[in-house]
Write a sequence for this structure.
């Protein structure tokens, strides 16, 4: 076996990405790295141990280096920060209870098919072959969950029930065809026994979860302060004062609530926020009917925004200028999401919208969603990072960053578009405020439920009472005005993914602080486009490192 070159940060980065991709076929497909198209990631304890060994070898090599350039120092520190967090997760054996409704091996094994090339006969043959690997992949995943059960390391019953329902939908046990049969039908190909195998794999997974795992799952949802502190550190890359963050979240909730009331007055004098939003929801002139028409509107909006921002407030490389709007397959959580371009940009960045069976789409809220997921949000940031081949290491381009960095940028992007005048219509501005309200409410609900904190006495909604999941959903509906069907899924998401939901507002706070500090430091010389260029060229990282690096740039 050839000894890997681990003599520079860039070489270690290249080796680590290649080694991890070889041990993680799902990840390889997500990043557009060829070579494992018919395989699926091994989520068994042995598979986890293999990936951990790769991380430890890379970390040991990094710690032996004496870096000289600032670029290498930044790249090294980015990797070491993430490696430290992954080691902490391993020590807590979190991989033995990796099950939730949004981002666990249960979903990854299904969603990897969304990212596979489909154009050629070989591409389609790879899809069918990978379907045949689903039963074994899920069986290996069960081995980790079973090991966790034996040690009393389990997730909450709520997440298990959600997973069972997803298995039911994807296996075709509910209404309509299975995901796998539907995919083959859409491509006009025969899946044969492999489609049946994938269906049976998910059906068996659902049966096992219901029969074996659910009775031993934790009846309580909160993870407690210690696990939550670690999770929030991982998602944000910064050590938070959770009590201060909780109080700040409330201040944001109240501030946004006041601004929504003022905006409602602009929409319909004398109307409350709820009444103004009811007007917007029922206005057919501000709605689109049909999935295809809605997807076309999203595509047109994202293309027009790209052209408007190109060269004005952002430098946007030619490959990044391509983006695709997609309707998400049914069965997943009801939240829009983004998938980045492949490493060579042969697969573009894509925004995915789960319709939840809806066919009418009021647009007052969707413009900000497009800005968040597309440009100048996720697509601009992630696409730009992928494009910076000379300035960033391969790890930085493909694997670095935290939810606080990425989601914080996307929420900053929504606010930026309002600052630039794109949301002057009070209907669309109300959409921005609704988005901001949801993210602020997430802070108080996520921290409040997991730490079982009291609601402030001054708050009219159950002031003085302790947060419970039962109190969360009505509060979400009342303060963010998102559809109840989507918000019910949101509560389950927060409880199964502790610490992630707060990363949007926490990250936005850091991005805004970095911009304000640069503005104060540079005075009249401050240039917004130059700030964006300098910030994005640093590459993704944790929020503490972002704060430190931006301070260094200011001198």
């Amino acid at each position: 076996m050839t000894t890997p070159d681990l003599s520079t940060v860039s070489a270690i980065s290249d080796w680590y990405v290649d080694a991890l991709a070889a041990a993680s076929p799902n990840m390889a497909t997500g990043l557009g790295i060829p070579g494992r198209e018919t395989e699926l990631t091994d989520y068994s304890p042995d598979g986890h141990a293999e990936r951990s060994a790769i991380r430890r070898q890379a970390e040991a090599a990094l710690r032996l280096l004496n870096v000289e350039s600032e670029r290498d120092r930044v790249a090294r520190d980015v990797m070491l920060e993430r490696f430290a967090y992954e080691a902490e997760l391993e020590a807590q054996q979190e991989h033995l209870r990796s099950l939730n409704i949004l981002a666990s091996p249960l979903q990854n094994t299904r969603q990897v098919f969304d990212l596979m090339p489909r154009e050629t006969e070989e591409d389609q043959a790879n899809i069918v072959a990978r379907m045949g690997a689903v039963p074994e992949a899920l069986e290996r995943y069960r081995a980790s969950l079973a090991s966790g059960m034996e040690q009393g390391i389990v997730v909450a019953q709520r997440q298990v029930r959600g997973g069972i329902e997803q298995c039911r939908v994807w296996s075709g046990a509910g209404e309509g065809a299975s995901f796998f049969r539907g995919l083959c039908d859409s491509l006009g190909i025969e899946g044969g026994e492999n489609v049946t195998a994938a269906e049976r794999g998910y059906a068996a997974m659902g049966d096992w979860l219901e029969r074996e795992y659910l009775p031993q799952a934790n009846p309580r949802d909160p993870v407690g302060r210690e696990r939550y502190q670690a999770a929030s550190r991982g998602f944000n890359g910064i050590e938070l004062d959770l009590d201060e963050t909780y109080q700040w979240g409330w201040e944001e909730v109240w501030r946004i609530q006041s601004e929504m009331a003022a905006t409602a007055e602009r929409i319909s004098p004398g109307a409350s926020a709820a009444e103004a939003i009811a007007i917007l929801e029922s206005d057919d002139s501000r709605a689109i009917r049909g999935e295809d028409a809605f997807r076309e509107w999203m595509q047109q909006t994202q293309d027009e925004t790209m052209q408007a921002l190109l060269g004005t407030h952002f430098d946007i490389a030619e490959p990044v200028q391509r983006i695709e709007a997609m309707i998400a397959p049914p069965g997943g959580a009801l939240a829009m999401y983004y998938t980045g371009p492949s490493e060579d940009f042969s697969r573009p960045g894509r925004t995915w919208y789960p319709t939840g069976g809806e066919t009418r789409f009021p647009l007052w809220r969707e413009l900000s969603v497009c800005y968040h997921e597309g440009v100048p949000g996720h697509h601009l940031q992630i696409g730009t990072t992928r494009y910076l081949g000379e300035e960033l290491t391969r790890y930085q381009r493909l694997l670095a960053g935290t939810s606080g960095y990425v989601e914080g940028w996307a929420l900053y992007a929504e606010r930026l578009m309002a600052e630039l005048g794109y949301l002057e219509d009070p209907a669309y501005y109300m959409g921005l405020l609704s988005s901001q309200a949801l993210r602020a409410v997430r802070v108080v609900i996520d921290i409040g439920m997991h730490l079982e904190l009291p609601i402030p006495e001054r708050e009219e909604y159950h002031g003085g009472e302790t947060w419970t999941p039962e109190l969360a959903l009505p509060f979400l509906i009342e303060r963010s005005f998102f559809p109840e069907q989507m918000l019910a899924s949101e509560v389950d998401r927060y409880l199964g993914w502790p610490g992630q939901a707060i990363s949007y507002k926490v990250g936005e706070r850091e991005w805004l602080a970095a911009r304000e500090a640069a503005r104060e430091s540079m005075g009249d010389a401050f240039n917004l486009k130059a700030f964006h260029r300098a910030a994005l060229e640093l590459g993704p990282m944790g929020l503490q490192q972002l704060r430190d690096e931006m301070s260094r740039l200011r001198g």
